[in-house]
Amino acid sequence: MFALCLSGGRRATVTNIPEKLFNVEGVRALPMKSRTRFLITAAFACHLFASPPLVTSQLLTSSSGGPPNRAGGARSLSSSSLKEQDVTITALQEEKDGPIYKLHGKAEVHYGIYILRADDMTYNSDTGAVVLDGHVLLEGGANDEHIEASRGTYNVDSETGLFENVRGGIGLRLRGSRTLLTSSNPFSFTGKRVEKTGPDHFVVYDGSVTTCELPTPKWQFNAHRVVVEAGRNARIYHSSFRLHGVPVLYFPFATHPVERLPRQSGFLIPNLGNSSIKGTILGESVFLKINRSMDATVGAEYFSARGWSPQGGFRARPSETSFVDLNYFSVLDRRQGVNYQGGEDVHLVAEGAFAHNLRGVANLDYLSSFIFRLAFNEVFTQAVNSEVKSRAFLSNTSNGFFSNLSAERYQNYENDTLPLQVITIVHAPSFEFSGVDHQIGHTPLYWSYNAALEGLSRTEPGFSTAPLLARLDLNPAIALPLNWHGWSLRPELSLRDTLYSQRLIPSTSTEVTTGTAISSAISRKALEASMDLRLPVLSKVFDGQLSGRKWKHVIEPRVVYNYVTGVNNFPNILRFDERDILSDTNEVQYSIINRLFSKHISSKSKDCGPPGMPSLFIGGPAPRDRIPWERQEVVKEASCDSGPEIREVIAWELSQKYFFDPTFGGALVPGRRNVFTTTADLTGIAFLTGDRRLSPLVSRLRIQTSSRTDVEWDIDYDFQQSRINDSTAFINYRLGPLTLGGGDAFLQAPGETLVSPALLSGKPSPEIFNQFRLLLGYGSPNKRGFSGATNIGFDANLGFLQYASAQLSYNWDCCGANVEYRRFALGSVRNENQFRFTFALANVGAFGNLRRQERLF
């Protein structure tokens, strides 16, 4: 038995009294002893509860059983109108008249996944009708609906009602002054009247909609009528778009997505811009939502100085392990003849995982003209890239065995004038099979193999092979890895046989660098032997501490001996890829790696905090190297309380080769840049133009004291020429919101004596390239307030600025503005100044022509 006594003359709410003591008329006369005990208990409880408590009444469905309790307080009512849902009412004061409940003070009605709150509330349990007054709140639902009003009427059965003086939202929860977002696409609205015409359906009259925080939004659509369907969209009629309350644009009709993953077909916000070579830029696009995992964008831009530019994109995500991304861009240049720079660029990236451990990947790029890329690509690193690569493959990996079916096309444009000169190499189809080391029985021997059957072709100015020639390459190998007290020795022996259906007849003229391909089979056989010796690793852990860290130095020496013989027909081998540059060699490579490790002895010594602006990075990946539409992962510093951290602070590798055979079995041609397998494995810079025994010294240094600092310097020094062949250095440093970066690329490509016979007696002069990159940034793409960055590229050899860009942005809580200046100086093809901008509305779109994939940050 339990009883509550409420002050203020209210009736007591009685619960848990045996059902047999009640009839339909109310409370029966109790026996004397029971009645006395009941009154004593009630009187004692009245003294215990001097302040008015909260009265809770739970209205159960008919399935709960039991007759209705009409004595007030907590009640169990049978009601078929509640749709098998429990309804709970709470208030400071309660009055009941039949099915009518009058609640006063912090009144609440909980039904299903919704909550109704008000200062005063009248609830009819038979009809589900509720009249609310004072601080009205409706909250809940699958889409997190939130409505605040001064008064209103509502029906909990039909989920319909009318509210006055409303402030509300979808996909968010308001907790006093705090706003909790429960959707990536929150939506807020205000109105003099809001009518809820059904579940997830609202009509807002004389109000506004926005994605900004209320009550002072930075932007909003003011409209006489807005139809909102939670989980779908909002249709806005006769609205004015306002910035800080100032009308800017009028829209007779507009839509806004109101779903957790907003995707809706319709016209996008037009873009507008200006360029010194394109003129005024006007553009419009249409977004098509095909289904929940597929969409497309089709549109065009008009360049007042050049013509039309059709463009579009298609995206699909059939499963968690597959995607398709297709982009099309073209310009219908009104210029004709030698001044024509129009063309088209198509890029397709797709990936998918299939049954039986199969994986398919396609990365296809079609470019009609290199001049078109130079003139119209908005990303400098892509605009100056003369290579066009396309490849698709289907592979299977199982137990260390690999099989691959692929097709590939490679193009390299040799000039930027008409007529274009391009080298095209095609692999189609290609069947490749390989296996990693597998032990032979219980012996210490291991075997591996590599085999390929391919169809190939190559065309370039003055030379072409058959449309499709065959190449069969077989390369089995056997190895005996040995280990003894830190010493590691791996002798390996392999045979290689490569069969071609065509051969090359070299040209004897110095004016021609290739020759003629004839239909005559040729076989290249080679015996390869190698000995890989790794000495015991030398290490030392230093006593004491420096900068709160313990330090360890490691030295890793290595010696590799290679011997290849049998390639006696190297001049007759056609060149397609790395399989065709194998030559005789007798060499030894020696290298040493120094590593310096640090370990924080306590979490207090760690570098904690944000890593700066991760999208700005000298030497970082090109935009096309990332998965389409996926956000780039931001590498964060380890948490200060995550325990000790071990970092490789310095890694410095020095490597060099000594050639016992300076002519490489007679394959070396004096006066030309010779590229063999052995030189390509050491460095990507061609250095063989004559007989030599010593290769350049290759140095690879990287310093990373923390995730905020990254320094790398790669250099090739040629002792025979007493010069630096190649030097590439870059540095990135982040200090809080500040990002600094710089880079330098220096190259001395060896000269060739192939242009004229008169130059054969002279010493060819090297081709020198020297280019600088500088970067400065503050803030981050999502930082509130100001952020900015600038990036320049300077050609020190020619003495001119190749490109420069500067971007400023300012972000509010629900919108942001970006302004960018960009300069291109690409020879006679492009000398352009661009002014681009964008004004972005959160979860709505962007107005302007500064595309996300082309922004500096």
Write the layout of secondary structure elements.
Layout: E1 2-4, E2 13-15, E3 22-23, E4 26-27, H1 32-48, E5 55-59, E6 87-91, E7 93-97, E8 100-111, E9 114-124, E10 129-140, E11 145-155, E12 160-170, E13 172-175, E14 178-181, E15 187-198, E16 201-210, E17 219-229, E18 233-243, E19 246-257, E20 266-267, E21 271-275, E22 279-291, E23 294-303, E24 307-319, E25 322-333, E26 343-354, E27 358-367, H2 370-376, H3 380-383, E28 387-398, E29 401-413, E30 422-439, E31 446-460, E32 463-464, E33 469-479, E34 482-484, E35 487-500, E36 503-506, E37 515-518, E38 522-534, E39 538-541, E40 549-565, E41 585-600, E42 646-659, H4 677-682, E43 697-706, E44 709-718, E45 723-735, E46 738-749, E47 767-778, E48 785-795, E49 800-811, E50 815-826, E51 830-841, E52 845-848
Antiparallel strand pairs: 1-2, 3-4, 5-6, 6-8, 7-8, 8-9, 9-10, 10-11, 11-12, 12-15, 13-14, 15-16, 16-17, 17-18, 18-19, 20-22, 21-22, 21-51, 22-23, 23-24, 24-25, 25-26, 26-27, 27-28, 28-29, 29-30, 30-31, 31-32, 31-33, 33-35, 34-35, 35-38, 36-37, 38-40, 39-40, 40-41, 41-42, 42-43, 43-44, 44-45, ...
